[in-house]
Design goal:
The protein has about 190 residues and is mainly alpha-helical. It folds into 2 domains: about 1-60, Orthogonal Bundle (Arc Repressor Mutant, subunit A), CATH 1.10.10.60; about 60-185, Tetracycline Repressor, domain 2 (Orthogonal Bundle), CATH 1.10.357.10. About 75% of the residues lie in helices and about 0% in strands. The chain is built from 10 helices and no strands. The termini are far apart.
Length: about 190
Amino acid sequence: MVTPVKGISTRAAQAERTRQQILETAQRLFADLGYDATSLQMIADEMGLTKAAVYYHFRAKSDILHAAMLPGIERVKALVDEAAAMRGRRARIEHLVNGFVDFLVQNRHYAVMASTDPAAKRDKLDDQSMTMRRRALALLFGDNPTGAERLSFNAVFFIPECLPDLVDLTDEELREALQTTMLRILRVPSLSRE
């Protein structure tokens, strides 16, 4: 009786590993070639699988994109939720910036794809992303941010598009450059609204 359960568990674990490998391969191809230029057949060929095997794990290419983007959206949501529980604008900004920077450093290719590929903008998660951005803006600048505050906040979200120009930086150099730039854009050193 124990053997069948173990066999099912092993099969389920293998299926999850394959699903994760499909996601990783697709993310790399999406980042390198773009979503629209990447086919399911290309993903399958890259992995040595059949197209049917890819379809077994994902019904459509858009499902792969959705699954690839979901962790990023969930991370931003968690950062915003954590910041909402903090007192003081400086603490909230530093928490959001540090979390966003950590995410960008750990996910350079994903971040570029998510911010530049038109398909990522069409994905249904983009609505969730916009909701999180509006919440973060209100946390940092209140319910009626000025034009300059809105502009600086939105400028931070264009930074991932610059990551391809920074491939020569180590993770630590990239982290420092991102933190310094984002904090400067958001005017953290001279906070006047605490």
